[in-house]
Amino acid sequence: MTVTLSLARMLRNSLLLAASLALGAAAWADAPLPKKHVIVASHKLATDAGLEMLRKGGSAVDAAIAAQMVMGLVEPQSSGIGGGTFLVHWNAKKKKLETYDGRETAPKSVTPNLFLGTDGKPLGYIEAVVGGRSVGVPGTIAVLALAHKEQGRLPWADLFAPAIALAENGFPVSPRLARAIDRDPALAWIPEAAAYFRPNDKPLREGDIVKNAAYAETLREIAANGAEAFYRGRIAEAIVRAVTNSPRGPVAFTPDDMAGYTAKKRAPLCGTYRVYRICGMGPPSSGGVTALQILKMMERFNVGRLKPASPQALHLFAEAQRLAFADRAVYLGDPDFVPVPLPGMIGPAYLSGRSKLISMQSVMDRMKIEAGKPKGADLTLRHLAAPDHARPGTAHVSVIDAAGNALAMTTTVEGGFGSHLMAAGFILNNQLTDFSFEPRKDNRRLANAPDAGKRPLSSMTPTIVFDRQGKVVAVIGSPGGWRIIPYVTKTLIGLLDWNMDMGAAIDQPNVTARSGPTELESGRTPEATVAGLKALGHEVSLTEPTSGVSGLNGIRVTKNGFDAAADPRREGAVGGD
Ligand code: GLU
């Protein structure tokens, strides 16, 4: 890994990057909508790589793989091959929706006490995150290989070429990556991460040109030999070594854990909202279930008649979120380990009962909100309030290819820079801190407690929307931890209830509510709405405009072509023809 810090070159490149971003945005606004194919990824260089594959006749999955390989290089704080991924895929020819689970898995040595300290108390968050204890067996390569086998069109090896070239020739550090490095003291604690992100003990800066020869070599091996090259042999050994020898305590993570990883096909989770069919990822993600619950509880209020960003609309939205998150905290976990009462949780009768708890006149007492009792629920499970740490991990890619295949892929190393460990040129995830830190509460089981071979509960919400005829209407998803679910739901309401275009739907103020105050995005939420929500009894927290961590990347299908947009709060970009 090398960093070239020639000042002249650095300046030229950052100017070039700024110019191309500005041109890109302006040119995009005036251009006719793409009609053939389109991709929205979390960084311009990743979008370019995906578009290159689409232009070669590649499928949506081909484009997403090429984009992912670049994202792992240029946005390593968010996603990469050391992390996990969920894919929702619509095969236009077969008229078949499929969902792919590439979630990280706990190694065999993990027990429910994973995050308890020697004193029996839960570890502090950073203590748990940084180092080997939080690392799950990465699933991204396995799930992409499985999706490629079933939905790919171009040769697997070709999909790696753009990322290999960028890793060898260098890429400019983006403003967001520079900020993430600058704000992360823990990068200095891990020698490999420090050497790469803080050469000569100075954080990389915007516009610096970075090469990553180790990542290029890793990608070459995976390109040549497939997923096997990742899960067995040199790369697997490098991962095992990094985790077991972690400077922050030895952890048992073995070559068998790597070799035993399997990506899984899961049944898609679909439900109706008004005339639309909303489909997404079921457990081990909570995204699909919780988003559907929120929408279904709002449906009877005829949201289309409320005004966007009005106190009434946001009140209703926040109340529905609180009820859905109360269910999530009790009943959701890895379905291979806990029985998840899915049909009950999204059943119309159940949700209409829950919806009746919402009043348009005043706020519920949030301290008293409890999970409901959906059919099939294990009522012995206990609720545990999840910790709340907004760190800028995760990214989303939406694609529609020339054959009409649609793909929503959300991908993550969990928090910014994952565990901060690096192996073979890439960051290793900290996904296991998505488990609850306590194994039991009041001597009762927790659905999302750690266990060997278990997958931690996610909030990722890759989503495809269909109309009554079964045609794709929209593809959407976002990063943002638990807030992903309201970010995506907000966008769906904008698109489906208020007929917004994709850019406007994404631009709407983010409003998030779980067990704490109602969080409003400052700068985007009208002052009268803040006052109106307070009058309805909401305790309001106004988050800084830049701390909103949504990165909604979506596509809306229109008569005139694909209306695609990337969230201005992050660095995503649209590409299409
Ligand atoms: N690890 C989180 C999840 O899978 C996502 C984290 C983020 O979006 O920053 O739900």
Describe the structure.
The chain is an alpha+beta fold and 577 residues long. It has 19 helices and 23 strands. Helix 13 crosses helix 14 and helix 13 packs across helix 16. The two termini are 35 Å apart. The site of glutamic acid has 12 residues, from loops.
Write the layout of secondary structure elements.
Blueprint (H helix, E strand, L loop, with lengths): L1 E3 L2 H24 L7 E4 L2 H12 L4 H15 L9 E8 L4 E7 L22 H5 L10 H12 L9 H9 L1 E2 L2 H8 L8 H7 L11 E3 L1 H13 L2 H4 L2 H11 L10 H5 L4 E3 L2 E5 L2 E5 L6 H13 L11 H21 L10 H5 L1 H8 L39 E6 L5 E7 L9 E2 L2 E2 L12 E2 L2 E2 L17 E4 L5 E5 L7 H13 L5 H6 L3 E2 L5 E4 L5 H9 L4 E4 L9 E6 L2 E6 L6 E4 L1
Parallel strand pairs: 19-20
Antiparallel strand pairs: 1-6, 2-10, 2-23, 3-4, 3-11, 4-7, 5-6, 8-9, 9-16, 10-11, 12-13, 14-15, 16-17, 17-21, 18-19, 21-22
Helix pairs in contact: 2-3, 3-5, 3-6, 6-9, 13-14, 13-16, 13-17, 14-19
The structure holds glutamic acid.
List keywords for this structure.
577 residues, alpha+beta, Glutamine Phosphoribosylpyrophosphate, subunit 1, domain 1, Serum Albumin, Chain A, Domain 1, 2 domains, 6-stranded antiparallel β-sheet, globular, binds glutamic acid
The structural domain count equals 2
* Multimeric organization: single chain
Mean pLDDT: 92
Question: What's the helical proportion of residues?
Answer: 25-40%
Query: Based on CA inertia axes, which overall geometry fits?
Result: globular
Q: Name the ligand types.
A: glutamic acid
Strand content: 15-25%
Name of the CATH first level of the largest domain? Alpha Beta
CATH H-tier superfamily of the largest domain: Gamma-glutamyltranspeptidase, small (S) subunit
User: Low-confidence segments, ≥5 residues, pLDDT <50?
Assistant: 1-27
